Every structure is written in structure tokens, then in C-alpha cells.
Amino acid sequence: SALTSGDFIPWPTEEAASYRSSGYWAGITFGELLARRAAESGDRCAARDQNRSLTYRQLDDSASSFATGLRDLGIRPGDRVMLQIPNRAEFLEALFALFRLGAVPVMCLPAHRHAELAAIAEASSAVAIVVAQDGVGFSYVDLAQRIRREVPTLRHVIAAGPATARALSEAGADFGDLYLPAVEQPAPSAGAVALLQLSGGSTGIPKLIPRTHDDYLYSVRRSVEVCGLSESSVYLAVLPASHNFTLSSPGILGALWAGGTVALTEDPSPSSAFAFIKETGTTITALVPPLARVWVNTAERSGAPGLETLEVVQIGGARCPGELAARIRPALGARAQQVFGMAEGLVCYTRLDDPEDIAVGTQGRPMSDRDELLVVDEHDRPVEAGASGHLLTRGPYTIRGYFRNPAANHRSFTADGWYRTSDIVSVRPDGNLVVVGRAGDFINRSGEKLSPEELEQHLLRHPLVDDVIAVGMADEMLGERTCVFVVPSAADTAPSLTDLRTFARQNGLADWKLPDEARVVREFPKTKVGKASRADLRAILRG
Ligand code: J2J
């Protein structure tokens, strides 16, 4: 199951050579990054969660022991290994173990359930899954075991907890000479795939995003510059650690690149998070708009003592209303930075010294001078300067294709390598982008993306459902919420919202994908070609 060059579409040779010779791609792997920091500043705090903290040296040692343990299970460079660990220090131990081994972590979210994990296991042909050894009211291990029984390639379930790395190194000591001390496989090369990110809102076959060490670390290094991270930075991961925003913009990996500290918490509620910010001296964190709103509301109502160290609050994942961005500084005492990014690549930031109208009213500008942007109409013709249109992009850290997915590649990339973002934007004369809408069909619920088709496919199996269409509707809190229009199979026995939610959950869908609202209709409005019209249903919701 080794990763072959046919599994991902490389950048054209000329571009790759140019990114390398100009130093954008620095030829460093994430495993080497950690080794360097451990050698230079081993006693500094690399990571801490609610229970423990790890110096750079300890994290490096843990990653090595963990990597050795994985290797002894037969996991090889290029093998895909699913990673599903919430915001705890062991997330980093496992992630860097995989980097060090050259195995490819597949960045699952803690909220993923059977439907998602099974599909990801199939699409990635993962050989193992590393999960948290315990969860609250839910067993990651039990679910992972079930997936292992169902998916032939998946041979191992590894439960990671605070003591796992140490146990592995002690097991090694017990084996004495039989146990090979360090990972002696050739070090992975920087041009290799470092990890597989997940595309939001995929249907059926998940879209896996192959990011190389070279391109991903470039995006992290450049983000560190733009966001001004240094050795004294403390980055708080409060959104899921594996999400591209939290991991790389500049996120967890940025804090480690800068030699700073990563703080990880599983509890985003203001009471818990504010106390942890105080305890850790957090300087920067990243939020989705609905969570930012909860924090701001709480701080406006009851004050937020102890946030003095907080310098920057990043907001991204979904459009941040200007009104909310403007309230960040008065409420939280920190600068607001808008981040418009995507796991496929391109990330735009407002800059820390931008004037208020840019910081509040735009989604920022590309981080790299080598990012290429094109705004086009339905026929791929460039629109007039300043007009809105579909955003296409290419550049040193934007992928050229999904992992083993020619059908998705055909839809999402042009022949000359532009990625079709599905976002509708306009570019202001000052170069900053305003995201005005979206052409793609996914629903952006609180920054978590879901595909209406995926939800529909699950709900269609409900015995009382004859037909169903899911659409996003504007929601003040969530940005969008999910409304399903249901045509019941018998007029007098329509399923309730609770029925549908329970059914979808039992079908193994992640919680954020469950419908928020259900409306019963006799039939759907039809388009001219006789297809059910999502646009008309959206119009009904707008009233
Ligand atoms: C409007 N829409 C936004 C924003 C993302 C940094 C930040 C976010 C992501 C992310 C990321 C938006 N305003 N500020 O990976 O590194 C919507 C767009 C985009 C899609 C990508 C990062 N920020 N979006 O959210 O892969 O529609 O990445 O195309 O999850 O989220 O989603 P995702």
C-alpha cells in the first residue's frame, strides 16, 4: 500500500524547481523541524494540555519512541495512518511519530463517526488508526475496532494516551537487543507527502488532500512571518487540532516552527478557555465566527480578566461579520485577524497593522507573493477588476489534485492547474479579498462543512422518507444551519426532526451534519429541466 507518485499530482517541474531555488520550499521535513528545535532549545516548553506539559526534548523523545513502536507493528514509510485524537498532548506525539517514520497521517476530526471514518479508511487504504484511549461518553477505541473489522486494509488500532510513548520506549528497553533503538529507515524526503488533509463537505468518496513537507512547511513558515510568531508566542489550539486552520495557519505547527509553545484544550467554553489562556499566557488563538461570538458576548457581559497576554484572535473558516470583528478588541483586548483559507492551499490574512476598514471589512490578502489568483465568470472568463466572480488559485502551497480521485480532480481543477475554490469573491483595489458567497453546494455550518447530498443519501434510507433535499439557511449564530425538506412516503406519517436526527446519528453521521430544521412538503419545486430546485427551496427559506 506504499504511496506511489501516481497517487498525487505534483507541481509542474519548472514551478517546483523555481519554488526550491527561491527558497520557498526549504527541503526540511516536519520530523527534522522537531529534531532541530529539540537540539537548540530542548528545555523549552513545546506543548501543554490540561494535564501535562512537554519540553521540546520530551516531545522529540516521545515521537521517536512512538515511531519505533509503530515501525515494529510493520507500519512503513508512505503507509496511511488515520489520526483521531482531540486537543491533547498525545495528538502531537502521534503526529510527529508518523512524520518521523515517513508514514502519512490522515487528519480525521474527533467529531467523525462511523460514516466518515469508514469512508476515509477506504479512500486512503489506511493500514492503521491512532485514536485517543478515552473519550467523554464515547469510545474512540470501540469505533476504531469496528472500522478495523470492516475495512480489510486496516490492520491496527492504536490507543494513545499520556503514557503511551513512555510505555513504548520501556517495552523497547525490555526487548534489549531485539528491539531496534532508533528508526533506521531512510529519512523521508521533503518532497514527499507529509499528510492527508480532508476537504470539507465531500460526498461519497472523501476528497483527501496530499500536502508535502515542502509545501506545507512553506505555508507554515510564511504564516509565522505574517502573524509575527516568535519564541515567546503561546498558541492556543481550541478548534480541533487536526483542522488545517488550527494546524497550519500558523497554528500548532507555526508555534513549533517559531520555537514557542502550543497549548491544547478540549473545552472551548469561555469559562474554561479564559482560565486556560490565563494559566498558559496564551498570546494567539484561532476561532470560527460562532465561537468568537460566544467569547465576545461573555466578555462584554461579565468581563474577561486574565486575558492580558492575548495579542491576536484569528477568525476564519467562515465569513466573519464586520460587526463581530469590530467587537474583538474592546471585548477581548486583542487584535482581530481575519483568515480566509482552505485545506487545499491558499490562505489569506488581514495583516496585523492593517487599518480598521481592512481588518474589519475584508478577508485579507494572500500570504505569498507567489500565490496566483484569478476571478472568473461561469465560462472561466476573467471578470472586470473589482467585480465578483469565482475564485481560482495556484501557487507554492496549493495542491494540483486530490489523492487518487480523478473524478474530483476533473471537477475541481482546470487543465492548467488552477484550483476552483467554489468561493465567490471580489478583489479590492488594495488587493484585499471580500468573500461574497459560494458557488459550491456545501453548507458551512459554524466553519464545519457538510455536503447536502451526503445527508440526503443517509436520510433517504429512512422508511418514512420518500424524497429529501437539504439546504443551508442563514443563521445569525452558526452562519448557516441545515434545513431538510422532506417529502414523506405517506401523507399522514411524516418523520419529525428528532426522528431524522436520531436516524442520521444511528447511520454514523458526525453530529455537525445532523439537520437543524425539517419541513414537510408534498413535492419539490422543479427547475425548467424538471429537476428539484435547491435554489427555489433556498428562496422559500429566505421568505
Ligand atoms: C469566508 N469563508 C471562509 C472566511 C474559510 C485557515 C482558515 C480557514 C480554513 C478553512 C483553513 C473563510 N470567510 N474567512 O483551511 O488554513 C470557507 C471557504 C473556503 C472553505 C475552506 C485555513 N475561511 N472559508 O476553513 O478547508 O468557503 O479550510 O473555501 O475547512 O471555507 O474550508 P476548509
Automatic annotation (TrEMBL):
SUPFAM superfamilies registered for this protein in UniProt: Acetyl-CoA synthetase-like
Any Pfam family: AMP-binding_C
UniProt-recorded name of the protein: AMP-binding protein
PROSITE patterns linked: AMP_BINDING (PS00455)
Annotated ranges, domain AMP-dependent synthetase/ligase: 35-403
Positions of the AMP-binding enzyme C-terminal domain: 454-531
Organism in which the protein naturally occurs: Streptomyces mirabilis
